[in-house]
Structures are given as structure tokens and as C-alpha cells.
Amino acid sequence: xxxxLPETFxxxxxxxxxxxxxxxxxxxxxxxxxxxxxxxxxFADFQxxxxxxxxxxxxxxxxxxxxxxxxxxxxxRLNSGEQLGYEDHTKRPFSDVFKPIIAAxxxx
Length: 108
Description:
Elements (H helix, E strand, L loop, with lengths): L8 E6 L2 E6 L10 H16 L5 E6 L11 H9 L6 H10 L5 E4 L4
Parallel strand pairs: 2-3, 3-4
Antiparallel strand pairs: 1-2
């Protein structure tokens, strides 16, 4: 299945390995809602693909693996009373996968 993912979240398959890269090094790889949805889709594809045995999740750049939520996106939405719904995207992909996931953490 070909996924249509943003440039800020890369997903590639190398043999039996899925490599997922959070790709916003200038923002210390802070997640946007679009990136969380992309990660969700990538993990679903990884779980369903019997040719993939293990996933590696990493961050681009050398300063940070992930700074968390992108506050520039989140604060205006929170101030308007909107629910972000990020909680579903941050825990569901990992809890629905029954294959090994390696976090290759660089920086802090």
C-alpha cells in the first residue's frame, strides 16, 4: 500500500525493516497533527505487512529525537477551546503493533 505522507514524516522499507523518521530538525522534530496522522498510518501499514519484521523510529538531525507537540500549532487551537485529539495518535500506533519497535534516539 502506497502511503501519501508529508515530508515531515518519512517511512521506508528496507528488506524486513521499516524505518520511520520524524523529519523536522529545525523544529527539534516537534509533532504536528499531520505528522501524528502520518505516524498512525505508517504503523498500521507496518503491522499489516507480513514482509516487515521490525520497525525503527528515529528523528532527523542531531539535536533532538522529538521535542513533543508543536506548541506553535497547538496553543492557538487550545486557546479557542478546540480539542486536539493528539492522545489517540500518540498511544494507539504503538499499542496496536505486535512486532518489535526500536527507538533510535539521537540528541535529547
